[in-house]
Amino acid sequence: QVQLVESGGGSVQAGGSLRLSCVASGRTFSSDTMGWFRQAPGKEREFVAAVFWTGGSTRYADSVKGRFTISRDSSNAVSLQMNSLKPEDTAVYYCAADPDSTTVSSRSEWYDYWGQGTQVTVSS
């Protein structure tokens, strides 16, 4: 059974930092792009960041560039370092895997495997 499990969410004041982690199991993820998406209340799920399976190529949403850093920690683990957090970063953050990928996609429909999400709350 494929599982992606996120951890590291929580509450922080604006300007603070959090580090999210995701560990995947149940299949080989070494050829997958791993990504992070988020969904705020009343809004659609949106792309945050992704890293190619080699770890050498990354992609970020404009809203998080320069503040967030995605890292491929191993073939089945990815993390998201979030600095200078803003209240508008408040959302449930989801880890996802795009299997056997040839590019770093920001499109959620390309990602077949999803975690349950972890809540991030940033207060002003």
Description:
This protein is mostly beta strands. The protein is 0% helix and 50% strand. It has no helices and eleven strands.
Mean pLDDT: 95
Q: Could you give the count of β-strands?
A: 11
Radius of gyration, in angstroms, nearest whole number: 13 Å
Topology as a string of helices (H) and strands (E): EEEEEEEEEEE
Number of helices: 0
**Biggest sheet statistics:** 7 strands, mixed
Percent in helix: under 10%
Oligomer: single chain
Low-pLDDT segments: none
- What is the beta-strand fraction? over 45%
Helix and strand composition category: mainly beta
Shape: globular
Report how far apart the termini are. Answer: 40 Å
Briefly, what is this?
Helices cover 0% and strands 50% of the residues. It is mainly beta.
Write the layout of secondary structure elements.
Elements: E1 3-7, E2 10-13, E3 18-25, E4 33-39, E5 46-51, E6 58-60, E7 68-74, E8 77-82, E9 91-98, E10 113-114, E11 118-123
Features:
seven-stranded mixed β-sheet; single chain; 124 residues; mainly beta; 11 strands
